[in-house]
Amino acid sequence: MQATQVELKSLEVLESRIQRAVDVMKKLRDENESLRGQIASFQATAADSAARVKELDSMRLSGQKLERELKSLQDERKAVVARVDSLLESLDALHLD
Questions:
Q1: pLDDT digits over 26-36, tens only?
Q2: Cα Dmax for the chain
Q3: Three-class DSSP category at 90
Q4: How far apart are alpha carbons 96 and 88 in whole angstroms?
Q5: Residue 90 Cα distances to 1, 78, 95, 97, angstroms
Q6: Beta-carbon neighbour count of residue 8 at 10 Å?
Q7: Alpha-carbon distance 12 to 19, whole Å?
Q8: Cα separation of 13 and 56, whole Å?
């Protein structure tokens, strides 16, 4: 009877260890699933961020193009103003009053 009690106790200890191992495995699986969800979320966020960076870069290039066009128009305006001033000076010199 003594040997049976020892075997029973050994089986109970073994069963307890197996149950703990099963619990740990379940916990790890749950954590793994949670982490996979977080990774998917981070990947989606990264993709959105990459698209936004691309959009902002495009906007930056458009802004640079508009700046160049504005500078060109300002230079053209200065040339027109100078030409008009020159014509007005010529008209003044003719004394056409």
A1: 999 999 999 99
A2: 138
A3: helix
A4: 11
A5: 131, 18, 9, 13
A6: 10
A7: 10
A8: 63
Task: Quote the CA–CA distance of 9 and 95 in Å, as a whole number.
Answer: 126
User: Could you tell me the CA-to-CA distances from 94 to 35, 82, 83, 89 in Å, in that order?
Assistant: 87, 19, 17, 9
Q: What is the pLDDT of residue 95?
A: 77
- Give the separation between CA 35 and CA 24, rounded to whole angstroms: 16
95: DSSP letter: T
Tokens of 28: 């790890």
Model pLDDT, residue 42: 97
Query: What does the block give as tokens for 8?
Result: 């029973």
Q: Closest Cα partner for 58 from 50, 68, 70?
A: 50
Provide the Cα torsion 9, 14, 20, 26; round to 10°: -140
Q: Supply 35's token pair.
A: 């982490």
Q: Tokens for 7, please give them.
A: 């075997």
- What does pTM read for this prediction? 0.57
